[in-house]
């Protein structure tokens, strides 16, 4: 399977940068020296520029890097690269995001009930035993299309996986 690398960036953090802030202040001060109607429109433009710099110019992405590792008939799958941890020589902990297709949702409805009809995606904290080719899902949290969290599952049992499954594909990525 040919794996493409796709990164999705997460949460944004705002913080000041001196040079841009000083530049925006000078624009505002120059605008305030103008008279009449032009003064109001220049102030408005300056305000919009300052607001834009505050919102977009100062942002630094510090969120989650999701790397694509596969798609099947039930969904599309990503793993989080920054917090992936090698706990020992053979154990790797990783967070997985599963974005479900209609077939994937149908699978969960059959196994878990009607509350899964609004399923959108899940976040799964998993550990891989690279030597034994096994996996355990420490926590699974499901999210509805409206963004609500439901039906969290905790489980610490190890399970073997098929090499050609999505778990097998992810194992090949994280157990390098």
How would you characterize this protein structure?
This protein has 176 residues and is of the alpha+beta class. It folds into two domains: 17-57; 66-174, Surface-adhesin protein E (Lipocalin, Beta Barrel). The protein has four helices and eleven strands, in the order E-E-H-H-E-E-E-E-E-H-E-E-E-E-H. A hairpin with a 4-residue loop joins strand 9 and strand 10. Helix 1 (18-32) packs antiparallel against helix 2. The longest helix is centred in the first third of the chain and has 22 residues, at 36-57.
Q: In the CATH scheme, what's the topology name of the largest domain?
A: Lipocalin
Spell out the CATH superfamily of the largest domain: Surface-adhesin protein E
How many E-type strands? 11
The oligomerization state is single chain
Radius of gyration: 24 Å
Named at the architecture level, the CATH assignment of the largest domain is: Beta Barrel
**SSE ordering:** EEHHEEEEEHEEEEH
Low-confidence stretches: 1-40, 44-62
* Backbone shape: globular
Mean pLDDT: 74
Q: Report the portion of residues in β strands.
A: 35-45%
